[in-house]
Amino acid sequence: MATMSLRTLILCSSLCLAACASSPPANAPAPAGYYRVQSGDTLYRIARQYKQSVGNLARWNQLADSSSIQAGQLLRVQPPSGAGKSASATNKPSAKAAPAKPAEKPAAPPPKLTIKLQWPADGAVIANYDGNRNKGLDIAGQAGDPVRAAAAGKVVYAGKGIRAYGNLLIVKHNADTLTVYAHNQRLLVKEDDQVSAGQQIATMGDSGANRVKLHFELRLGTQVVNPATYLPPR
Question: What are the boundaries of the signal sequence (predicted)?
Fold first, then answer.
């Protein structure tokens, strides 16, 4: 759906920092081109501060979905030297055959859902999850219809910085569970707000979409899963 995968989006917007005794002090100076992570930072906020994309920061610092940034950690916030070389300089054919890539390990099964979800909107489902083109459910409605939190949690992202998702909210419910609410007309909560199950958090709209709808996604751990599997029957 979006040009940036939600794997990177979730990494940037939901990985809250855990204090680590072995990490350098958060107030230690950072060398040029780097940033020292402060308590409460998220990767998205750092990317926004330094006018970089989240994908670049994740790549430059070799961050995986299962990583978490920590207070005191150094992050590169400027391109490494040579990152801007022309394609002709970096894509020259090699005389030696490239070594075969090792077989990828199968993805771990998603953790069990430990909370109860409720439907975030009242309309009919007009597009189902398919794991490829649509990583969630599209729910129809009228502009201004209420969008509700599927469970209690903390807002870890509120904004429109992710292309094709429009006005977007991400709510973190526990260490393993996040829900995503896209294409909203108005956001009624902000980052770091605590929300309760069923609380109205937005109004339905068509921002970043070709019609009024709510696009709703569910993440368990680092995996996107079918929300319909976990929502109660209507």
Answer: 1-28
Look up the domain containing 11 and give its range.
Answer: 6-76
Decide: helix, strand or coil at residue 4. Answer: coil
- Residue 143: alpha-carbon gap to chain centroid: 25
Q: Cβ–Cβ contacts within 10 Å for residue 153, how many? A: 21
Please report whether residue 156 resides in a domain: yes
Q: Which of 147, 232, 154 is nearest to 182 (CA)?
A: 147
User: Which of 60, 76, 92 is at the close of a domain?
Assistant: 76
Does 136 lie in the same domain as 59? no
Task: Summarize pLDDT for 119-131 with one digit per residue, the tens.
Answer: 999 999 999 999 8
pLDDT (tens digit, 9 = 90+) per residue, 2-37? 445 455 666 555 444 333 334 456 667 788 889 888
Residues 59 and 150 in one domain: no
Phi and psi (nearest 5°) for 220?
A: -115, 115
This prediction has a pTM of: 0.61
